[in-house]
Design a protein that fits this description.
- With 280 residues, the protein is an alpha/beta fold.
- The chain has ten helices and ten strands.
- The protein folds into two domains: 85 residues, Rossmann fold; 123 residues, Rossmann fold (3-Layer(aba) Sandwich), CATH 3.40.50.
- Helix content is 40%, strand content 16%.
- The strands form three sheets. A five-stranded parallel sheet has the order 5-4-6-7-10.
- The structure holds NADP nicotinamide-adenine-dinucleotide phosphate.
- NADP nicotinamide-adenine-dinucleotide phosphate binds next to helix 10.
Length: 280
C-alpha cells in the first residue's frame, strides 16, 4: 500500500461535499480577496482560489489595489466589505508590500468574516477552544491527519516553524487532540533532537531539504507544508525521496497540503456564511 497522502483526492472530496451542501441548501456564499500590489505568486494563488470558489458555487470578488495605495485606503476597503451583507468572507492576500502593517490591517476584518482566522478574536478563541474561524492551512493539515486516521492522542508531534499562519494555530489544534507538541524554529539549537523523536512531524519553514532521513525515525508521519521553487519545479521542506522511505505516511509537494488549504478556505467561507445567516 502506498504511504503517500493524496491531498488532491482529499481536497476534491471536501469540495464535492461543499458543492452538494451549497446546492441542496441554496446557500449563496461570497468571498472577497483584497490584493495590494502585483506579487507574481499571489496572482497565481488568487487565480486558484477564484477557480476553486467557482467550482463549488461560491461567488468570488477580487479587489486588486496598486502598491501606491495607503494603509488607510486598504482599511477603508475592509470596512466597506465588513458592512456589505452580501460578502461573507474577507481575505487579505499576504504578503502585503513592505511598509504595510499586516497585523493592523488584518485585524480590521470582522472576525465573523475572517476566513483566514488571523484576527485577534479568532486567534484568541482558538486558544480558548471556542468555535471560531481557523487558519486554512492548519485546518487542512488536521483534515489530512483525520482522513488518514492518524491517532494523535499522547503522540509526540514536532512542528518545525512557528508562523502565525501555520505553526502557531497548529499548536492549539494538536493540543486539542491531546498530542504532546514540540515546536522548533530558526533559533532552535538542535532540531534533530526533536524531529527524531516525533511520531508526527509537520514542517513549515520555506527551506527546501531542511529535513533529511537522519532526522526522522522509522514509521514517522510527515506533513510537509513548505512550498519552494527549485530549478523551475516545486518542492517542500522535506527531502522527499529519502524521507519517504522511512515514513509510514508522507505528503508530497505539490499535491499534499496545498490543495487542502484551498479547500479549507472554501469550507471556512461556507462556515462564515452559515454563522452570519444563523444556519446550523
Ligand atoms: P514564515 O512566516 O516565513 O515562517 C517560517 C517559520 O520557519 C518561522 O517560524 C521560522 O523561524 C522557521 N524557520 C525558518 N528557517 C528555519 C530553520 N532553518 N530551521 C527551523 N525553523 C526555521 O513562513 P510560513 O508562512 O509559515 O510558510 C512556511 C512555508 O510553508 C513556506 O514555504 C510557505 O510557502 C509554505 N506555505 C504553504 C502553504 C500551503 O498551502 N501548502 C500555506 C502557507 C505556507 P523564526 O520564527 O525563528 O523566524
Amino acid at each position: 500500500m502506498s504511504n503517500i497522502i493524496d491531498g488532491i483526492s482529499a481536497s476534491l472530496e471536501l469540495k464535492n461535499k461543499l458543492k452538494i451542501e451549497i446546492e441542496k441548501k441554496d446557500l449563496t456564499p461570497h468571498l472577497a480577496v483584497i490584493q495590494v500590489g502585483d506579487n507574481k505568486a499571489s496572482n497565481i494563488y488568487i487565480k486558484n482560489k477564484k477557480r476553486a470558489c467557482e467550482s463549488v458555487g461560491i461567488s468570488f470578488t477580487h479587489i486588486k489595489l496598486p502598491d501606491t495605495i495607503s494603509e488607510d485606503f486598504v482599511i477603508k476597503e475592509i470596512k466597506r466589505l465588513n458592512n456589505d451583507i452580501s460578502i461573507n468572507g474577507i481575505l487579505v492576500q499576504l504578503p502585503l508590500p513592505i511598509g504595510f502593517d499586516e497585523g493592523k490591517i488584518i485585524n480590521e476584518i470582522n472576525p465573523l468574516k475572517d476566513v483566514d482566522g488571523l484576527t485577534f478574536s479568532n486567534v484568541g478563541n482558538l486558544a480558548l477552544e471556542n468555535d471560531c474561524l481557523v487558519s486554512c492551512t492548519p485546518l487542512g493539515v488536521m483534515e489530512l491527519l483525520r482522513l488518514y486516521k492518524v491517532d494523535l492522542e499522547g503522540k509526540d508531534v514536532c512542528i518545525v516553524g512557528r508562523s502565525n499562519l501555520v505553526g502557531k494555530p497548529l499548536i492549539q489544534l494538536l493540543l486539542q487532540k491531546d498530542a504532546t507538541v514540540s515546536v522548533c524554529h530558526s533559533k532552535s539549537k538542535n532540531i534533530k533532537e526533536y524531529t527524531k523523536k516525533a511520531d508526527v512531524l509537520i514542517v513549515a519553514t520555506g527551506h527546501p531539504n531542511l529535513i533529511t532521513k537522519d532526522m526522522v525515525k522509522e514509521g514517522v508521519v510527515v506533513i510537509d507544508v513548505g512550498i519552494n521553487k527549485e530549478n523551475d519545479s516545486l518542492c517542500g521542506d522535506v527531502s522527499f525521496n529519502e524521507v519517504s522511505k522511512k515514513a509510514s505516511l508522507i505528503t508530497p509537494v505539490p499535491g499534499g497540503v496545498g490543495p487542502m488549504t484551498v479547500a479549507c478556505l472554501l469550507k471556512n467561507t461556507v462556515k462564515a456564511y452559515k454563522i452570519q445567516n444563523g444556519i446550523k
